[in-house]
Design brief:
This protein is an all-alpha fold. It is built from 19 helices and no strands. Helix 1 runs antiparallel to helix 2, helix 6 packs antiparallel against helix 7 and helix 11 packs antiparallel against helix 12. It is rod-shaped, with a radius of gyration of 49 Å. 35% of the residues are buried. It is found in: Cytoplasm, Cytoskeleton. Kinesin is a microtubule-associated force-producing protein that play a role in organelle transport. Keywords: Coiled coil, Cytoplasm, Cytoskeleton, Microtubule, Motor protein, Repeat, TPR repeat.
């Protein structure tokens, strides 16, 4: 027997009600007839008893029918109530579905609002950090470096010119500066191919601050800064992280500036392993570390060990950046210098010529790298005794510099090399020839003050001496010396607005050697780092200096978000 539905039960109940009502009417009719018969047979007792018994049975049956009708009515009412309840149930279910949809929408809105709130909190936190950094920078302005410290730094650089490796890696103002290998500089193109890794802003800022201290010879501040940052990065990110490799690279180059070559080599090898593991073997940052390691070996005279590293860096940059990229040209310059120190002049000329072609094509003939590369190539010619080829390149550098500063060359506007040759020709005719300063003012650092030009003046002077043109050589060498002295005087006396600009430029030139040696982490930075003042002023005792140094380092680390 199958179970009946609610509708079927109600339908059957209505049918039963109809049958019971018909049966009730029939019973009422029969009962009425019996009652009338009973009244007529009242005078015959035996018959009346039988009729009375029948009437009682009918009455009982009628009562049962009435009870069944009542129960059927109740069942119908209950069925109607159940239908009403079911309708309410369906209505409530619809409301529940609508509320679930509204709840899901509200959850989405809440999640979106929470994300916006989190982004806002991060932005506020970043603004607070920026504010703290700016407040810190304003508090250390009073610790400006003394001019005497700058002069002493200049004297230290002069002393470094006696080092046997200065011919390979001199500072910007050394005699053979244009032939120096260049550590990896910042490059906006290299940043675009850094395969998902971008150096954090705080490391960039710390990097620039370390440059400032190192350029001033304040290694007692620069080294603890690097070590503290390295320790913090290893705690937060682990040893095998690109940021740790960046910090190792910076610290290694600070050690290299201190001539601590062994420590620098260990750090660079560690940084190289981390970058190869985390960024891949063909990443620009790997090329930067290889280049810095090659530079380090070159400074130690290990040219054969440095050459394969430099070649591998060149291959990576050619593969990632393209064969005609300026960074490839810089790598070619470094490789040419390593070959030059091994006497491989054929390769030297090929590398320099290719680098020169890249610079002229991509950056234009007036780019400083063009003059530097011409000077490098001319120096290679000079060492081989190819005086004619070297002289042509030296004169091209000086002529182009003259045209940029003083305009087109004519009878009254002559480049310095032409003035020097005229003085050489007229040395026996006029004893007291006119000072060359009247012929364009080359000795004035405000006009022509380029380390490349100064080096070219000295190198061309050397060439003139080898050719027996002593008067011309003295003219160029004296001009270079005057430029140097003028730069020192500007550092001492640069108090006017224009002088302030010259002072800043001179300081930039004085620290460029350290800055370029540290710019090896592929930073996408400006041409010059910010001129951070030193947090240590002149003190009266060594103890107060140590306290100021410790306090300055703690402030710097709090400003950069590191743990001190």
């Amino acid at each position: 027997m199958t179970a009946l539905t609610q509708e079927e039960v109600a339908s059957h109940t209505r049918t039963v009600v109809q049958g019971l009502e018909a049966l009730r009417n029939e019973h009422n009719s029969i009962l009425s007839g019996i009652n009338s018969t009973l009244a007529a047979a009242a005078h015959h007792p035996p018959d009346s008893n039988v009729i009375s018994e029948k009437a009682g049975i009918l009455q009982k049956s009628l009562d049962q029918i009435e009870l069944g009708l009542s129960e059927a009515q109740i069942m119908l009412a209950l069925a109607s109530h159940l239908q009403t309840v079911e309708a309410e149930k369906q209505k409530l279910r619809a409301q529940v579905r609508r509320l679930c949809q509204e709840n899901a929408w509200l959850r989405d809105e809440l999640a979106s609002t929470q994300q916006k709130l989190q982004a806002s909190e991060q932005h506020v936190a970043q603004l607070e950090e920026d504010k703290k950094h700016l407040e810190f920078m304003s508090t250390i302005k009073k610790y400006d470096a003394d001019v005497q410290d700058t002069e002493s730094s200049m004297e230290e650089k002069k002393d470094k010119s006696d080092d046997p490796v200065v011919d390979l890696f001199p500072d910007d103002d050394a005699d053979d500066r244009a032939a120096a290998m260049s550590p990896t500089p910042p490059s906006q193109f290299a940043q675009q191919v850094n395969a998902g890794y971008e150096i954090p802003a705080r490391l960039r800022t710390l990097h620039n601050l370390v440059i400032q201290y190192a350029s001033q010879g304040r290694y007692e501040v620069a080294v603890p800064l690097c070590k503290q940052a390295l320790e913090d990065l290893e705690k937060t990110s682990g040893h095998d992280h690109p940021d740790v490799a960046t910090m190792l690279n910076i610290l290694a180059l600070v050690y290299r500036d201190q001539n601590k070559y062994k420590e620098a080599a260990n750090l660079l090898n560690d940084a190289l392993a981390i970058r190869e593991k985390t960024l891949g073997e063909n990443h620009p940052a790997v090329a930067a570390t290889l280049n810095n390691l090659a530079v380090l070996y070159g400074k130690r005279g290990k040219y054969k060990e440095a050459e394969p590293l430099c070649k591998r860096a060149l291959e990576i940059r050619e593969k990632v950046l393209g064969r005609d990229h300026p960074d490839v040209a810089k790598q070619l310059n470094n490789l040419a210098l390593l070959c030059q120190n091994q006497g491989k002049y054929e390769e030297v000329e090929r590398y320099y010529q290719r680098a020169l072609e890249i610079y002229e094509t991509k950056l234009g003939p007036d780019d400083p790298n063009v003059a530097k590369t011409k000077n490098n190539l001319a120096s290679a010619y000079l060492k081989q005794g190819k005086y004619k080829e070297a002289e042509i390149l030296y004169k091209q550098v000086l002529t182009r510099a003259h045209e940029r500063e003083f305009g087109a060359i004519d009878g009254d506007n002559k480049p310095i090399w032409q003035v020097a040759e005229e003085r050489e020709e007229n040395k026996n005719k006029v004893k007291d020839s006119a000072p060359y300063g009247e012929y364009g003012g080359w000795h004035k650092v405000a006009k022509v003050d380029s380390p490349t030009v100064t080096t070219t003046l000295k190198n061309l002077g050397v060439l003139y001496r080898r050719q027996g043109k002593y008067e011309a050589a003295e003219t160029l060498e004296d001009c270079a010396i005057r430029s140097r002295k003028e730069a020192i005087n500007l550092v001492k006396d640069g108090m006017t607005v224009d002088g302030g600009r010259r002072l800043s430029a001179s300081r930039d030139r004085l620290r460029r050697g350290s800055r370029e040696s540290l710019n090896s982490a592929e930073f996408d930075a400006a041409d010059d780092p910010p001129n951070f003042p030193s947090p240590m002023g002149s003190t009266t005792s060594q103890r107060s200096q140590d306290d100021a140094r410790h306090t300055g380092i703690k402030k710097i680390f709090h400003a950069f978000g590191f743990q001190s």
